[in-house]
Specification:
The chain is of the alpha+beta class. 30% of the residues lie in helices and 22% in strands.
Length: 166
Amino acid sequence: MQPVDQLNSGQSLQWLKQKIEQLRVTTIKATPKIEPGGLYFFFYQPIGKIKLPYYDTFPLVLVTGIHRDGFTGLNFHYLPPTYRIAYLKKQSVALARPMIKKYLVKQIRSRVVPVQPEEWAMSVALPLAQFRKKFQHVVWQESLDTAKNWKPGSGTVHVAGTRREE
């Protein structure tokens, strides 16, 4: 994995333009199969967004599980970029906790675009989050507080912008 400080901004911009173009293609045939272990981004509108304290309309998700109506995964946008890279290098259960979200397929508002493993470091480093209702620095601080205070078997788990006790 290429260090973030060595990523070429021209390469990053070109990569981003290519991925955005892929989002514009709306034919269902072009949508890839979502699989555990894959990293994807897409536009999303959650059900119950009025009740959510905040949510990301452009998630970057590492899929961890498939469900009948959708999937669960880690949305990297809930952490600041330096912590995203740290998670890729050495997975941490505590860092993963605030990123765990569930997505319903019927609420996806674009193509689902896969990110190849060699593109992961670049994609998680880019400032692409589109949070609604709270500024991203507030979301990041709440996520870091959750990670810092989490202990196995207790604490708060965020699922699709809601909180529940574990």
